Amino acid sequence: xxxxxxxxxxxxxxxxxxxxxxxxxxxxxxxxxxxxxxxxxxxxxxxxxxxxxxxxxxxxxxxxxxxxxxxxxxxxxxxxxxxxxxxxxxxxxxxxxxxxxxxxxxxxxxxxxxxxxxxxxxxxxxxxxxxxxxxxxxxxxxxxxxxxxxxxxxxxxxxxxxxxxxxxxxxxxxxxxxxxxxxxxxxxxxxxxxxxxxxxxxxxxxxxxxxxxxxxxxxxxxxxxxxxxxxxxxxxxxxxxxxxxxxxxxxxxxxxxxxx
Length: 260
Ligand SMILES: [Zn+2]
What we know:
single chain; nine-stranded mixed sheet; 11 strands; binds zinc ion
């Protein structure tokens, strides 16, 4: 009889250990979700970006603003960027003159590119207390030599893709430590619907990945001289729909500096 008791005890222990293991692993898996969305805005639509502040706060969304032509901003706009940064958003860099790197290098050296397009603007921003750690190439153009050199200044170098079918969006793999990353342009001119956004969000959630979405201006309407087809703009109501979808599906809002 004692032998049977010992055998029973051993079996009971094994069952307990296996049960605990499954509970622990399912708990661990739940904790390990890194799925999320990185929302990015390019250029220098600071006044309109600032107007979305209540919306970003409503959904606890932190986003990244890639700023170009910083020298053209007035004092009030620089102050607005600082407030957005204090809110927890990232202020990143998008070039001093917003040049197409490959066109620029036809008549300039790589050194000139760095002095005029990178270092000069960065210095101006740093003097104002803004210290960008990420860079987005203007015009979705990149150059391998420049990209290599840019990694000395920035943690991430972002490239935008335009007109991408909804099934072909790029997803960042958490933990992959990529420095060259790809954002998909979701401006109104590409006609994505809220259902498309939901599809992308659910894919990120199911695959435990991060989708990087880029827009430019944030306003309710296009300027009177610009048609939707030419507009670098996401309407505020569409932005709200996107933020709501991300929030309701409990995905994390990532800043670009948080991708690792
Ligand atoms: Zn741009």
